[in-house]
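lol forgot to send this yesterday, sorry. struct tokens for the thing we talked abt
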């Protein structure tokens, strides 16, 4: 099997494309959080708009962007950690089909744990299970959508690894606010994580291709210089 994960063994990002991917994802996380923050926490910030407090709006927007930058960095660390783990998984199980099966089982367990343990810890007497299930369903649907588009880019075998990343790794990145369970923060962190994770997993092949083309062009220029010197 040759997919973009295994391509990491043969092709690495040039420093220029590392910087591009990092700052593009960083900006995406910041802007997303800045905009969604006002929507998610509207009850807290609506007076700024009703009273036309421009200074408060701008300062809050900048603060939300700063929070989003942190979320984006967490997303990027999680993504490249998973790329490493994926390679270890392929090496240990020596079969992409077996490793995919393990990832699928872990994905199911992660979704179950997200529902069960949060409900056990935070649910009030007679509280419905629906809100806890809905978050897991949202992450699953987002993961399935991203996995579908990823599989359309190349090998169909990328579907399960992408689903695993979008579900399991997102939940792990999300743990800091899940432990607190403050609703506005739960949603405020969730959406930027999903968006940044989806962006990285779908866009990395593009940056890898750019890096490969840049290396080929650089090698061609070097060969041309050598041949000119010989002449």
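and heres what i got for the seq, position by position
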């Amino acid at each position: 099997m040759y997919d973009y994960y295994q391509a990491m063994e043969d092709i690495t990002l040039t420093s220029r494309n590392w910087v591009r991917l990092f700052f593009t994802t960083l900006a995406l996380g910041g802007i997303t959080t800045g905009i969604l923050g006002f929507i998610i926490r509207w009850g807290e910030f609506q007076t700024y708009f009703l009273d036309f407090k421009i200074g408060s709006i701008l300062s809050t927007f900048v603060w939300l962007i700063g929070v989003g930058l942190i979320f984006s960095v967490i997303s990027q660390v999680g993504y490249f950690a998973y790329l490493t783990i994926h390679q270890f998984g392929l090496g240990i199980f020596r079969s992409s089909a077996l490793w995919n099966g393990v990832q699928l089982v872990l994905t199911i367990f992660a979704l179950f744990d997200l529902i069960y343990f949060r409900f056990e810890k935070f649910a009030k007497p007679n509280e419905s299970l629906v809100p806890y299930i809905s978050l897991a369903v949202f992450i699953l649907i987002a993961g399935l959508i991203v996995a579908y588009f990823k599989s359309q880019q190349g090998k169909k075998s990328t579907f399960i690894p992408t689903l695993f990343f979008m579900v399991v790794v997102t939940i792990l990145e999300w743990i800091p606010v899940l432990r607190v369970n403050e609703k506005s923060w739960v949603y405020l962190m969730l959406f930027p994580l999903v968006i940044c994770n989806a962006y990285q997993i779908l866009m990395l092949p593009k940056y890898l291709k750019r890096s490969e083309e840049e290396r080929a062009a650089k090698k061609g220029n070097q060969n041309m210089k050598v041949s000119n010197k010989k002449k």
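Helices lie at 4-10, 15-40, 42-50, 54-93, 96-122, 130-153, 159-178, 183-230. anyway ping me if u want another try
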